Amino acid sequence: MTDPMQPVFDPEAFLASTGLGRRIVQLKPREAFFSQGNEADSIFYLQKGRAKLTVVSAAGKEATITLLSAGDFVGEESIAGAMGRRLTTATAISACTALKIERAEMIRVLHEEHAFSDLFLKFLLNRSMRTQADLVDQLFNSSEKRLARILLLMAEFGKPGEPESMIPQITQETLAEMIGTTRSRVSFFMNRFRKLGFIEYNGRIKVHKSLLNVILHDHVSDQNATRPALAPVPRSKAVAEKLRPAGVVYTDTGAD
Description:
The protein has helices spanning 11-16, 103-112, 114-140, 143-154, 172-179, 183-195, 212-216, 237-243; strands at 22-27, 32-34, 42-48, 51-56, 62-68, 73-74, 89-92, 96-102, 165-166, 199-202, 204-207, 229-232, 248-251. The chain is built from eight helices and 13 strands. The protein is 34% helix and 23% strand. A hairpin with a 1-residue loop joins β10 (199-202) and β11. The strands form four sheets. Strands 1-8-3-6 form a four-stranded antiparallel β-sheet. Strands 2-7-4-5 form a four-stranded antiparallel β-sheet. The protein is globular, with a radius of gyration of 21 Å. The chain is α+β, with helices and mostly antiparallel strands.
């Protein structure tokens, strides 16, 4: 039975504070949380900032696996069975604040606190779904759509807040690694997105809601920005009217 005198465990308070087996760490941009091959002895909870997970092949080729933002756990492989080695490198993209939780403490709280177990399980399920979506994206979508999706995810589009957002600084080489194409192709698509008014960039990239058009439609015209761009009408005309950015005209394909 639950002891009525024992305080109710609050997962958010646990992840926001220091204590036995956990401490808050500050990382500068480009500083590593951990590196591939390190001992997997802890897990991090990202409180603020953006980070990325990368992996290096035996041949020395580096690839960016995913981007991380506040609310994500990093290094969860440390609690999978016996202590092993890190499979990836986690690096701060912007200044980060994170809670570092020792492996033993993380295992303890997962076993003893159901509220925390539920929160962590939800995170793992969301990450699994994101990984599956990334795989489908890689297998079936064009590199242009993959780039648009990554930019929207980085802008956290769809989360509460403003529908237009600045994303952390990221190189075109990193974007190319993430979507499986070349830097020149990324540069070509970025210039087209800017010309069509989907993004703005001058050092940092500002993503507009209208970038969704690249994902919703099979083709976005590459015409001069002074002329209206043509794209197929989505299944719902009501949705089309809501998502249509200024200056973009849909061609009627008869779908409704």
